[in-house]
Design a protein that fits this description.
By secondary structure, the chain is of the alpha+beta class. The protein is built from eight helices and twelve strands. The protein has helices at residues 12-25, 42-48, 58-75, 94-102, 152-165, 170-175, 210-213, 224-248; strands spanning 2-7, 28-33, 81-85, 88-90, 109-111, 119-122, 126-128, 133-140, 147-150, 182-186, 190-192, 252-255. The strands form two sheets. Strands 1, 2, 3, 5, 6, 7, 8, 9, 10 and 12 form a ten-stranded mixed beta sheet that branches. A two-stranded antiparallel sheet has the order 4-11. Strand 1 (2-7), helix 1 and strand 2 form a beta-alpha-beta unit. Helix 3 (58-75) packs across helix 5 (152-165). The two termini are 21 Å apart.
Amino acid sequence: MKTYILNLPSALERRTFQTQQALRLGLEAQFIDAQTPADIPDAFFQAHAFSWERPIKITEVACFMSHHQVWQQIADSHEPALVLEDDAILAHNTPDLLKHLEMLNGLDHVSLETRQRQKLLGRRSKAMAGLNARLHPLLQDRTGAAAYVLWPSGARILLAKFAQHGMGLADAFISSTYPLKSWQTVPAFAIQADMAVAYGVSCPIAPHSLIAREKVPSPPTRGGLHDLQLKWRRLRGQLRLAARYLGCFWRARRQFVGIDIQQF
């Protein structure tokens, strides 16, 4: 399975870490230059900055478009791929997981990540032989786009949503795309560097978020009516979350997804 690693050209420490991690795990890795605010034309930014439930910063637009370019490559292919942000730390047995996932049909998206927040997981699950892990339907998530496997079918669903509704925060955009047949590995096979200490894992790189580190203001709204439109969009988003939960709670449960510390 091919692995796409999103990496800012200036983030040399992270590129070195991901190169070493890929070699150690035997991943077929391809670096994708992540987009920066300088790559985003102002007209494009203005056209999409208000398509989400709140104004989107230009750094967040660049992050989303970095994922978008990988989705396009996967959609044009015939096989799933692993997508990583450059601060993702993978479990040692990730190669075995990828081999297992390659053989499965009927999936669009599998999250490998956990961030100490509860996820709504289906009660039924699929055992993964030899991995001491299971796949659960991922019915609702809130954060995390640092490590996931995406099938061409899933990539096309995400691209179609963008074409119809515009962008959002990359992780929230994925997790709110309910037509995706999404699954979660239990335990998780990946964490981001900023979560390493919380999970008792040695962090090989600086753990800060490059997006959060850049103090970029949100774009100003266009007035009171525009503010009300965004608030209404936010309310509709919260109602969709509630409706999703009510529609799934009978076959699901909220739970924290841990890691197998021995694999890290």
